[in-house]
Amino acid sequence: MKPIEKKFKDIPTAEKVATFVGWLEEKKGRDVLALDLAGMNAFAESIIIVTAGSVRHAQGPADHVLGMCDDEKIEFLRMEGYQAGQWILLDCNDVIINVFQPPVREMFRLESLWSDAPVLHDGRELAPPVEAATTSAGTHSGVRRMAGKVAGARAAAVTAKRAATSSADADAEEPKPRARSRKPAAPKTPEGDDQ
């Protein structure tokens, strides 16, 4: 009987995290922070948080990690937030990667949710102290509340942009009045004149 070939590599989480950190830094990810969540009753063994400078910059590391996972046979479950590029979440089963734009990372401050977690990698230039969350339930509801506010603000901005664009398009499509040239009226001839 032929042995069953595994679809994905079976590598330790710490090695996987080191690999992901290398890939993210290779694509110029900034302020990379990796936390060990093992034994903390969390949804993953590890979390990686990284900052990107623009939407395109955020999509680059996400694409790179996806491609390298495929090449290296590392399990990759899904990606969320790619189009908006403000917060791209990569679910690699036991490792979750979060690629943030700077204001979004500062607003959500995921580091503070797991302040007691051992640090596997800290590439932050000015590593701020990781603040302890008051309660995990309060913090998670705060994150959900902020996510709702961000989504609402984003929807309002998109609506305003669409309204401005459609207004500009309507102005552009509105026919401009043409200058009419008047032909001089043909002289009327009195009835009965034969010319």
Automatic annotation (TrEMBL):
Region (Disordered): 154-195
Principal localisation: cytoplasm
Matches recorded under SUPFAM superfamilies: Nucleotidyltransferase (SSF81301)
Annotated Gene3D superfamilies: Beta Polymerase, domain 2
Pfam families in the cross-refs: RsfS
Functional description taken from the UniProt entry: Functions as a ribosomal silencing factor. Interacts with ribosomal protein uL14 (rplN), blocking formation of intersubunit bridge B8. Prevents association of the 30S and 50S ribosomal subunits and the formation of functional ribosomes, thus repressing translation.
Stated name of the protein: Ribosomal silencing factor RsfS
Subcellular location: Cytoplasm
Source taxonomy: Bacteria, Pseudomonadati, Thermodesulfobacteriota, Desulfovibrionia, Desulfovibrionales
Sorted UniProt keywords: Cytoplasm, Repressor, Translation regulation
Family: Belongs to the Iojap/RsfS family.
Subunit annotation: Interacts with ribosomal protein uL14 (rplN).
Gene: rsfS
Keyword Kinase tagged: no
Organism of this sequence: Nitratidesulfovibrio liaohensis
Compositional bias segments (type: Low complexity): 154-169
InterPro entries per UniProt: Iojap/RsfS/C7orf30, NT_sf
